[in-house]
Design goal:
single chain, alpha+beta, 9 helices, Arc Repressor Mutant, subunit A, nine-stranded antiparallel beta sheet, 2 domains, 9 strands
């Protein structure tokens, strides 16, 4: 992983590799995490974001996180001085990567290789910050409960997304009534149990699709009986079929 100064207030982090994974860490700067190609996940204490090239993740300064890629990836991250981002979110968020934002990220990466005058770099930075468009986190985010037992249970479900478990069985596993479990799950994740489990499967599917697995393989790995059932869920969640989503993700 390579870090280079693009302007006096932005550092570009570059990584082109088959796979990479970082340990948990923090930055004194805010960070915009983006993959030119491939899929990257970002995990914090509050949840996990899995983003393709049509999206990026905003991580405010000082938030502990780890990043991971799936299969081959071209990874770029911008470390941005907090003085530049006073009016931007202080929690992690998904960012829409418009064609203009993509070109601005790439231009800052180029400036790290071949610096130009400070005024030019400053103008690119200001335009980039204006172009950031923050999306609702739900489609690509999986919340992590703070409740210790529930967090362990959710981690267990994530370890095998194809595993089928009914709501009553989940409540029994935590020695709770059905109604108590439902209330706890909603309070901790802001999602229903069924919706959270679907989100876990969707994010797992994104990582498998990025590795080149077939729709059939991904459907079975995520607990769906058929590719058509899986594709219908994917389209409802992200507005496109899996093949359309990855074919167009860099150009939306």
């Amino acid at each position: 992983m390579r870090e280079q100064l693009a302007t006096d207030r932005i550092v570009v982090v570059s990584q082109d590799a088959h796979r990479f994974a970082s340990a948990r860490h923090t930055h004194r700067q805010a960070q915009l995490i983006y993959a030119i190609s491939g899929v990257v996940s970002v995990t914090t204490a509050s949840g996990t974001w899995v983003v393709p090239p049509s999206r990026a993740v905003w991580v405010p300064a000082g938030i502990e996180h780890k990043t991971k890629s799936y299969a081959t990836v071209q990874f770029r991250a911008l470390l941005i001085d907090p003085a530049e981002v006073e009016d931007l979110p202080n929690a992690c968020a998904v960012v829409e990567v418009t064609p203009l934002l993509r070109e601005l990220i790439l231009r800052l990466a180029t400036l790290a290789e071949t610096p130009r005058d400070a005024d030019f770099g400053g103008a690119v930075t200001r335009l980039l910050l204006l172009e950031l468009s923050f999306l609702p986190v739900e489609p690509l985010n999986l919340p992590t409960p703070q409740h210790t037992q529930l967090a362990r249970f959710c981690e267990w479900m994530q370890s095998d997304p194809a595993r089928a478990i009914a709501l009553d069985a989940a409540a029994d596993a935590l020695h709770m009534s059905r109604s108590s479990f439902v209330r706890l799950f909603r309070r901790e994740t802001n999602l229903s149990f069924a919706h959270w489990r679907q989100q876990a499967r969707l994010l797992h599917a994104l990582s498998l699709l990025a590795q080149g697995q077939s729709i059939l393989q991904v459907a079975l790995a995520c607990g769906y009986d058929s590719p058509s059932a899986f594709s219908a869920m994917f389209r409802r969640s992200l507005g496109k079929s899996p093949s359309e989503y990855f074919a167009n993700s860099a150009h939306d």
